[in-house]
Amino acid sequence: xxxxxxxxxxxxxxxxxxxxxxxxxxxxxxxxxxxxxxxxxxxxxxxxxxxxxxxxxxxxxxxxxxxxxxxxxxxxxxxxxxxxxxxxxxxxxxxxxxxxxxxxxxxxxxxxxxxxxxxxxxxxxxxxxxxxxxxxxxxxxxxxxxxxxxxxxxxxxxxxxxxxxxxxxxxxxxxxxxxxxxxxxxxxxxxxxxxxxxxxxxxxxxxxxxxxxxxxxxxxxxxxxxxxxxxxxxxxxxxxxxxxxxxxxxxxxxxxxxxxxxxxxxxxxxxxxxxxxxxxxxxxxxxxxxxxxxxxxxxxxxxxxxxxxxxxxxxxxxxxxxxxxxxxxxxxxxxxxxxxxxxxxxxxxxxxxxxxxxxxxxxxxxxxxxxxxxxxxxxxxxxxxxxxxxxxxxxxxxxxxxxxxxxxxxxxxxxxxxxxxxxxxxxxxxxxxxxxxxxxxxxxxxxxxxxxxxxxxxxxxxxxxxxxxxxxxxxxxxxxxxxxxxxxxxxxxxxxxxxxxxxxxxxxxxxxxxxxxxxxxxxxxxxxxxxxxxxxxxxxxxxxxxxxxxxxxxxxxxxxxxxxxxxxxxxxxxxxxxxxxxxxxxxxxxxxxxxxxxxxxxxxxxxxxxxxxxxxxxxxxxxxxxxxxxxxxxxxxxxxxxxxxxxxxxxxxxxxxxxxxxx
Length: 663
Prior knowledge:
alpha+beta; Aminopeptidase; Immunoglobulin-like
């Protein structure tokens, strides 16, 4: 897009002071009351104000539009960004109603700008805040500081976190100096290594980063970074960075903008920096309008919902703004399945959503309350062979699937401490040397499994298949740090990648239903061996839910809220469950009986469940006489002794009780 607007050039002769920046923001809000609002977000450690200016067409209303922000100078000795923010504010406000493209951006985006996040550091011309805290190492981090709380963090960090908690930002960027590059997530990884660490939205981050860099020719033509962009951890990893926190915890996309190789260039160069970054700032901001957007509401009341939105097969959640219910999922062109969840509502997956280039695809969603089992809902006593009614509530226009189980809560456990002294038949092992059981190290007991004794540029692996459930094991790594690695995969996905020398470490996760392949491997590089030069695992446990569910009805007619069901076997561990079936084959969440109920053995020979063994039961048995399990006419109800066939023994069993009544 070619931007046409009234030019804005720096009016100041030098970098503006903290006081002058505050006065500038106040003047903008006074001069442009129709589109600008000044917000005091909170105080720094020394009591200085951290201010934001909001620019949008209806600043006092929550609207269906993405929220965007620029934040600068979280490092107090990096000043170019705060001037870029001030010029950007002038650009938007002075051109509103004059330039149609800029007017459209202000009308369609809720824009927030924080020119000075670290006012104390700015006043003292130091990187850290007044207490020596580097604010871009102070945010929650899934590997080093996982609790998403402001407790124990710097005042400036807490101000930005609390503001973010109360908002729903789609896209943002934070501005720095000291390099010339757009740095995109992730900045960190489980190993704390300087390696390329992509987010699930790596394609999107490359696109939006290049939307910035391509309009800044010195950045785009960087001799150090191709197209002027880099993955953060590939450049160098950091703990506690703000951009990773936004993506991991808040569902917001953010990059870090390094605007100058010089930390504080002479102010005379600021007009040049503005000309280099002006179009980049506009183009980057405009990307928050791509992808899929819509409103999530209650199907009955039409009220907005606080919902979670995910793209199927992308491990990243975004969230609606609960005030309006709007979501803005930035995506590259393609076809996607989107999943919507809200507490107290049936989840919904919408398939084959087509995203084109340009304006976001519109997809509004109304969520229904889930169906609920009414009966049997726990504690009932039913009888084998006697018909009962399964009843539920739900959408009167919907169709449902209904199932039962007779072994609810049945658990199977795989526990292997390798105390047999050898790998069992469930394991496969290979590579340059096989894994084996050893008594040299163990977490508990006397034995553990150990990687094979491999040399340089060799690998030793071990695999086994398990069913879904709770998985855990202990591992110990002792090898050259940063070069030789223990890797653990689930279904080909890398879960552990670690090197160095340490003690026993616990790993656990929950596997989804179905079969899964586990793979442990030790992989060496081309030289050197340190410590024990191997890895061990011990105390493998997999706890699997063996509950088996069977259809009572796979698909009801629309509006049906009950179905007749005849339990065929005695058990104290019965439950029933129901879920909605959507058009196109999607499913809602299951609702189960609140508790288990029992089915007791009925009167032997009462095959039709009418409480008496009589001629009608005999006729039913004879109609299926001679048929066995697997035959089309086989009926398990007439197989009284559960032999797999309806035969003479079943006939004798019925005749022995002929004429009896129940109870």
